[in-house]
């Protein structure tokens, strides 16, 4: 009997195939991890290699790679979005401009959360606010246990929405699940955010990457054809989903399969922002991020 492959991936239209009866990868049955929200799978993956394949936030992957975790990145983007609208204040709270956040307290689930990475990059790039000038009030530790947070990161209790609602901070960064589930209209802080997001996308020629697909390096080395088969299955569904949308929004445009110019641009900006914010401290290139994929699947993909 073939070994079962463990996979941690959120339920999206382009991952539904994983639950189809009889689905297997080169004869391997698959078992989906029970992780909801999906970020609860990230620490077990980077600390324990609990899964064969795992969806992983790009910021977490960058930190895990820097820490030496034997995990390989596959060029598959499972989720992404623009994030100008992810920086919000509580309804009825005092108005504040992005440039005025220097010296203030801003909540984010974890300093290494990928949405926070993108928002801090936008604040620096478009409004001149350095990450070091803000006190980041967090509710969770980083997924990578060895990562040392910058000194302007604090920890508190509760959820980010609770922290924002009780006025402990002037603003909060919310990732897609929390933002989508928030009750009541939170107020985006960046003015004309829809236009600003599209302008950012036109300038950088990509949509920010949130989550990518990763695989244990030992599995990639031992069974490249198995990994290639699952990689291709993800790619087929992503391409089909994108082809079905006549006017795709940013979340569909963000989905990617293969080493494309958009993928490389997104990875490069994530690296640049991460270094700028001390999310990682060792320079790395996009080619180095994709080295495992290139060496083991270059001829198969």
What would the principal axes of the Cα set say about the shape?
A: globular
> Would you count the extended β strands for me?
13
Largest sheet: 7 strands, mixed
* Cα Rg: 19 Å
The mean pLDDT is 94
Q: How is the quaternary structure best described? A: single chain
Low-confidence stretches: none
Structural class: alpha/beta
What proportion of the residues form beta strands (DSSP E)? 15-25%
Helix/strand order? EEEHEHEEEHEEHEHEHEHHHEHHH
Explain what the structure shows.
This is 4,5-dihydroxyphthalate decarboxylase. The model has no long low-confidence stretch (mean pLDDT 94). A hairpin with a 2-residue loop joins strand 2 (24-25) and strand 3 (28-32). Helix content is 37%, strand content 18%. It has 301 residues and is α/β, with parallel strands linked by helices. The longest helix is centred in the C-terminal third of the chain and has 21 residues, at 224-244. The protein has a seven-stranded mixed beta sheet with strand order 2-3-1-4-12-5-13, with helices on both faces. Strands 9-8-7-10-6-11 form a six-stranded mixed beta sheet. It has helices at residues 42-48, 58-66, 114-127, 160-165, 176-181, 193-204, 217-222, 224-244, 250-253, 261-276, 286-289, 291-297; strands spanning 5-8, 24-25, 28-32, 53-57, 71-80, 87-89, 105-108, 135-138, 153-155, 171-173, 187-188, 209-216, 256-257.
